[in-house]
Amino acid sequence: MAAATFSATLATAPRDVAVRASSARAVVLARASRRHHRASRGVVVVAPSSRSTASARPTAVAAAAPAGDALPPTAVFDTVVAAAEKKAAQDPATTLLLGFSAGALIGMGALLMSCVGGASPALAASNPGLCNFLKGAVGLPAGLTLVILTGAELFTGNVMTMTSGVLAGKVDAASLARNWTLSYVGNFVGSVALAFLAFWACTAAAPAAKAAVIGIATMKATLPFAVSFFKGVLCNWLVCLAVWGTMASTSTAGKILAIFWPITAFVALGFEHSIANMFLIPHGMLCGADVTIAQMMMNNIVPVTLGNVFAAAVFVAGLHWRAYSYGGNVAAAAARVVAAAPEPAAR
């Protein structure tokens, strides 16, 4: 009799242990879930209804920022896509007008760069590294900050934004082409208009400033095509990461800081930004640089624009879409959230 009782106890022991383990797991998951909801402002994820299509994206909406000062990268990508949808719905005249504003504001930053760091020949001779840092820190970070804070339409950032929207399936190709064209034309007109205003205002009247403006334009317009292209790639990789950082930040100070380091880096390293060059080269030509329009376009503006587009579309939009939004990754993320949810109580 005792032996039979002992055998029955052994038989039921594994089941009891499993029940207790399951209960403990439910308690842990419930506590983790409560902590998660307190730490964030809510995330709603609906798992995909079918696994038949690898690229099928579940309905997933990341809510607002967590308790800190920045959104997590996955939520930033969703913010970029939402911005693309807004740009796609924007009136064309508004896009063109805001494009003009962006070109002029970037030109303001480029003018500041050339007239401060560029017009420091003694520093450039004695400490070129420090001079390059000065040119990077003073000028274009201010220009991009003004673009972001005013909502202007900058072509180089729009390439990243609109490409992300297309890859996510929220924006069509026609909307992308319209935004790119209008913002690019607006940027060009705004940049050239500012070049004339700066020339008429005699901003480069000082000999050192005039020499810097002419030297910058001459150097840029005589680069080999391939060099301009790759400098454009490296430049807009950093510029788009700066724009990405502004979308991640939930404060104005955070946005300014997100802009400062990438933009300072690209200028200090001598990379090429197509919109800034739409101001720098015409301004140098007006001040006396021996550069033709054909040289400006074929040696700089065209290859730099192509490089800027490649970096924004591939290294920023494409890379982050593949990492955070592309089918299998989103499905896996949804599965992890579902698995982390507390199990329903056993009946």
UniProtKB/TrEMBL annotation:
It is a multi-pass membrane protein. One of its GO terms (molecular function) is formate transmembrane transporter activity. GO terms for cellular component: plasma membrane. It holds the Pfam family Form_Nir_trans. InterPro entries: Aquaporin-like (IPR023271), For/NO2_transpt (IPR000292), For/NO2_transpt_CS (IPR024002). Keywords: Membrane, Transmembrane, Transmembrane helix. The chain crosses the membrane at residues 96-120, 132-152, 188-209, 221-244, 256-280, 301-321. It is found in: Membrane. PANTHER family: FORMATE TRANSPORTER-RELATED (PTHR30520), FORMATE_NITRATE FAMILY TRANSPORTER (EUROFUNG) (PTHR30520:SF6). Belongs to the FNT transporter (TC 1.A.16) family. This is Uncharacterized protein. It comes from Micromonas pusilla. The lineage of its organism: Eukaryota, Viridiplantae, Chlorophyta, Mamiellophyceae, Mamiellales.
